[in-house]
Amino acid sequence: MNWILLFHAVSLISVTEGVVLNYTDPLFAVIVMHVLGEKASIFKLGLAGIAFVGAAVVIKPLDLGGGPGALATLASGFFYGLLIAAYKLSIRSVKPARLVLYQSAIASTALMTPSGG
């Protein structure tokens, strides 16, 4: 899902803005893991805060220059952050190579569906 949103977003905003906003995924991963009970250090929370400020600078919330493209890219970062958190939780019971195989198989199957145009 994150790749679909990212590719859609860069059709609406510049690639530079899209890539910068997409790299908010660690911010979302830290937040998700914190909500799930993992203690985040002050250092990690500080870095998450810096990432948030950086995203806000790119989006320019008072100007809303990015609009739907910026929101789609942030959603892409959010979904990739969820994937990172899922990997971290799953790695306790599934080997990393198997996780990559599962993700690739699911993504390939999903992307092979007809797009309708």
TrEMBL record:
InterPro entries attached to this UniProt entry: EamA_dom, EmrE-like
One GO cellular component term noted in the UniProt record for this chain: membrane
Record key words, sorted: Membrane, Transmembrane, Transmembrane helix
Domain EamA: from-to ranges: 3-59
Lineage top rank: taxon: Archaea
Record-annotated membrane-spanning stretches: 42-59, 71-91
SUPFAM superfamilies to which the protein is assigned, alphabetical: Multidrug resistance efflux transporter EmrE
Protein name, as recorded: EamA family transporter
